[in-house]
Amino acid sequence: MSAVRPGEAGATRACPHCKATILESSAVCPACRGHLRFDASASDAAQRFVPLQVEGTINGNDTGSFEYTMVVVIRNERGEEVGRHVAGVGAVHPGEARSFNVTVEAVPVAVGKRRLKH
Q: Is the confidence at residue 71, as pLDDT, over 70?
């Protein structure tokens, strides 16, 4: 969890359903999609935007099977690594395929909350 104080931009907590680390302001867990709050206004959903979305597919070939590891790395403006997570591992055999989709969802910070440098 983050060292950011509760109520500030970037503060995190554990999802009560799946225990994933999520933003304290989340009304729905992005990992398990469990509802956390039912008081979220419709304007929160309207303000949400996707500044990054990447999708790709890897296909098995006739030369044999191969293993893969999907790693998500987050870096700050100075190129320093601030987060690293293995999202999944597996194998692809001839005739099989795996699709990957990486999406960054964002919502503007409410007025009055401090912007913190990490």
A: yes
